[in-house]
Design brief:
Elements: H1 2-5, H2 19-30, H3 42-55, H4 58-61, H5 96-105, E1 114-115, E2 118-119, H6 126-183, H7 188-205, H8 214-224, H9 264-282
Antiparallel strand pairs: 1-2
Helix pairs in contact: 2-5, 6-7
The structure holds zinc ion (2 copies).
C-alpha cells in the first residue's frame, strides 16, 4: 500500500525500492524504539511521504534544470546541501531516494508522537502551535528590523546628497557674490570682509544638514552679528540681485535643485579656493 504511494519520480511502479528508503518506511510503519520512532498507520506514512515530496517541491528541486545555487549544473551540484544547520546551502535534490528517506524520518517536533502538528493519539500538538507562533513573531521582528535598516539607509543617503548639494550651493553663492562686488569695484580686504559677512549670513539661513560646526559658527556669529550687510552697489546693476534674507525664498537644506552647468571661470575659482584652503591647513 505504501509502496504504491511512492512518487514515480522516486521509484517507477513495480521496481524495488532503494534499501535506505525501504528501511525508513519500515521504521515508520513498525516503529523503531531505539531511534525514538513511534509506529504509524500506512495512511499516516503515505500522508507524510506526500507532504514531504510535494509540500517541499521535491519534484521541481530534483529536476536537471533546477538551479538551487550558482554552482548547480545540469549533471548535479557540488555545493554543500541545505540543512537545518546550513540554511544557506543549495536545496537542489541530487538523489531522490536518499532525500525522501531522510525527509520522511525527519521529525522537527520535539514530541515524537507528533505527526506534523497533529498528535497521533489525538489532538493538536501544543509544541507545534507554540513553535508556529514563535516563527511568526521572529519573521515579524526580522521584517521590522529590515524595514528600519532600509529607512536608515535612505535617510543617510538623503543627508549625504544634501551635504554635497549644500557645499556646492555655498561655493556657488560665494562666487556669485564675489563677482557682483567685484563688478561694483570692491576689492582686496574689503571684498573679502564683505564676502565673509555675506556668507556667514547665508550659512545661518542654510543650516548644514550634517550638523553645524558649533565652535566655528559661534565665533562667526560673535564677530558679525553686530551689523547687517550693506552693499551699496550701483542701482543699474544688471547682474544677480543682492539678496537679503527676505529675498532668498523658501529654500531648504536638502532641496538643492540641479545646478546649471558651472562656468569655466567659476570652476577655476573653486579650484583656486580649494588649493588655498589646503595650503592654509598644511600650515
Ligand atoms: Zn547547487
Ligand atoms: Zn508537534
Amino acid at each position: 500500500m505504501v509502496r504504491a504511494a511512492i512518487p514515480a519520480a522516486v521509484a517507477r511502479p513495480g521496481t524495488a525500492l532503494y534499501p535506505g528508503l525501504h528501511r525508513a518506511i519500515d521504521d515508520l510503519l513498525t516503529g523503531n524504539e531505539c531511534a525514538g520512532i513511534p509506529r504509524r498507520s500506512p495512511e499516516q506514512v503515505i500522508a507524510r511521504v506526500n507532504r514531504r515530496w510535494y509540500g517541499e517541491h521535491a519534484d521541481t528541486r530534483s529536476g536537471a534544470d533546477y538551479r538551487g545555487c550558482d554552482r548547480c549544473t545540469t549533471p548535479g551540484c557540488e555545493a554543500p546541501r541545505r540543512t537545518p544547520e546550513n540554511p544557506e546551502g543549495c536545496d537542489r535534490i541530487i538523489n531522490r531516494n536518499s532525500w525522501l528517506a531522510a525527509a520522511i524520518l525527519q521529525q522537527d517536533c520535539p514530541d515524537p508522537g507528533c505527526e506534523d502538528g497533529v498528535i497521533m493519539s489525538g489532538g493538536d500538538c501544543r509544541a507545534c502551535r507554540v513553535r508556529a507562533q514563535e516563527r511568526r513573531a521572529a519573521a515579524r521582528a526580522a521584517a521590522e528590523a529590515e524595514e528600519r535598516l532600509r529607512a536608515e539607509a535612505a535617510a543617510r543617503e538623503a543627508t549625504a546628497a544634501s551635504v554635497a548639494g549644500r557645499a556646492e550651493a555655498e561655493a556657488s553663492e560665494e562666487f556669485r557674490f564675489r563677482m557682483l562686488l567685484g563688478r561694483r569695484g570692491t576689492y582686496g580686504a574689503m571684498l573679502d570682509h564683505q564676502v565673509e559677512r555675506h556668507m556667514t549670513a547665508w550659512r545661518e539661513r542654510h543650516p548644514d544638514p550634517a550638523g553645524p560646526p558649533l565652535a566655528l559658527d559661534a565665533a562667526r556669529r560673535g564677530r558679525f552679528t553686530d551689523e547687517e550687510p550693506d552693499h551699496d552697489g550701483p542701482a543699474d546693476e544688471p547682474g544677480p540681485e543682492e539678496d537679503g534674507p527676505e529675498e532668498d525664498g523658501p529654500e531648504e537644506a536638502g532641496s538643492w535643485g540641479p545646478a546649471s552647468s558651472p562656468s569655466a571661470e567659476y570652476q577655476a575659482w573653486r579650484e583656486q579656493r580649494a588649493q588655498a584652503r589646503l595650503a592654509s591647513l598644511g600650515g
